[in-house]
Amino acid sequence: MIATNHNSYEIEVFFDGGCPLCLREINLLRRWDRHGRIRFTDIDAPDFAAVQVGKTYEELMSEMQARLPDGTWLRGVEVFRRMYAAVGFSPLVWLSRLPGISQTLDWGYSVFARNRLRLTGRRCTGEVCSLEGRLARARSKDEVPSSKGVRP
After folding, report:
1. Residue-range domain boundaries for the chain
2. What's the chain's average pLDDT?
3. The pTM is what?
């Protein structure tokens, strides 16, 4: 059964659409999300306002964040676990929770999150990221299969 309304998703993911690496993974998950279990919200979209979700732009840019339908917020690797479980990769998620693997993933992601803007050639100040990020997103728009699940 395909989800048809915005309340039927399992997780709402807040992603940086101006980050080429992030966008690549989000596009992959969009293709795999055949049942509409993930709601994708681009925090780099011109009409996005962090205050509407009770966060600051800086908080959302600092690491991957998601919100469950009950209002619970998730951060970091747990967001990826929930997204991959939503598209059918529960065995992979189970493995990612094993001691040693879990700590390594948490550490690796925290290093990436702290350096993401520099690694992807972006500069952000306040609620504005440089043109470099927007140009990268414009170039990758051909990879976006649809706007299904994206906030208007």
Report:
1. 6-143
2. 82
3. 0.74
